[in-house]
Amino acid sequence: MMTKRPSQAVNPSQKSELIDDLWSPRVITEMNDYQFKVVKIEGDFVWHSHADTDEAFYVLKGELRIDFRDGSVALGPGDIYVVPQGVEHKPYAAREVHLMLIEPKGVKNTGDEGGTLTAENEVWI
Amino acid sequence: MMTKRPSQAVNPSQKSELIDDLWSPRVITEMNDYQFKVVKIEGDFVWHSHADTDEAFYVLKGELRIDFRDGSVALGPGDIYVVPQGVEHKPYAAREVHLMLIEPKGVKNTGDEGGTLTAENEVWI
């Protein structure tokens, strides 16, 4: 019963301020086989999809647009959007935006697309 | 590939303002077999644990304390804490607090304890 528990809460907005690089998700905590990550982005990401999982976006700071082949969705601070499994999407931020991502461990940021923006996984902050 | 996707983002803080009852989680969106819920609480909940899953708490508004048998953790707005599977805990709020919970579908709010504070599941807002 006395599983080890974290000694204190974690604040994703504070964590995201510590990140140096754009497009480089950092893990902040875990829940079962899922991870909470923070990431800073600006500009256009690559079109990609995740064949095996949904992916939750939560905006910490700034304005995010997620483009789809059939439209787009706008998110402001405190908004959540869950991109369904298999749906092609492309995050876009006109100015720097800080996000929290929630998704299963091991999900690659560029999904099935790969390429130079593919980030290392399992980097904690 | 063209799985149905939500038409727009959801804002947990706005959703939590719509809730009438304390201790009654409301589902706002889903990710794979997980749900995002919002809940308003005030006062003491019951001691309980979840044998099969971790449970993530995210504070939208107010101050939350989570009591454990060996201490407690304080959370303010924007803080996250993941209670590990099997660990007894008791949420407490001196004044009304709005939370987002992230956990697998079907998790009972009172865990293995049950009792009068057990809420209906699968109520959306």
Structure characterization notes:
The structure is a homodimer of 125-residue chains. By secondary structure, chain A is mainly beta. Chain A contains 1 helix and 7 strands. In chain A, a hairpin with a 2-residue loop joins strand 1 and strand 2. The model of chain A has no long low-confidence stretch (mean pLDDT 94). The A-B interface holds A 1-13, 28-32, 34, 36, 49, 53-56, 68-70, 73-75, 78-88, 102-104 and B 1-13, 28-32, 34, 36, 49, 53-56, 68-70, 73-75, 78-88, 102-104.
Précis, in short:
Chain A has one helix and seven strands; from the N terminus they run αβββββββ.
Model regions low in confidence, pLDDT < 50 over at least 5 residues of chain A: none
Question: How would you name the oligomeric state of the polypeptide chains in this document?
Answer: homodimer
Structural class of chain A: mainly beta
Distance separating the two termini of chain A: 28 Å
Q: Roughly what fraction of the amino acids of chain A lie in strands?
A: 35-45%
Judging by the overall fold, what is the CATH architecture of chain A?
Sandwich
Order of helices and strands of chain A: HEEEEEEE
CATH class of chain A: Mainly Beta
Secondary-structure blueprint:
The structure is a homodimer of 125-residue chains.
Chain A: H1 12-16, E1 26-31, E2 34-44, E3 55-61, E4 64-68, E5 71-75, E6 80-83, E7 89-104
Antiparallel strand pairs in A: 1-2, 2-7, 3-6, 3-7, 4-5, 4-7
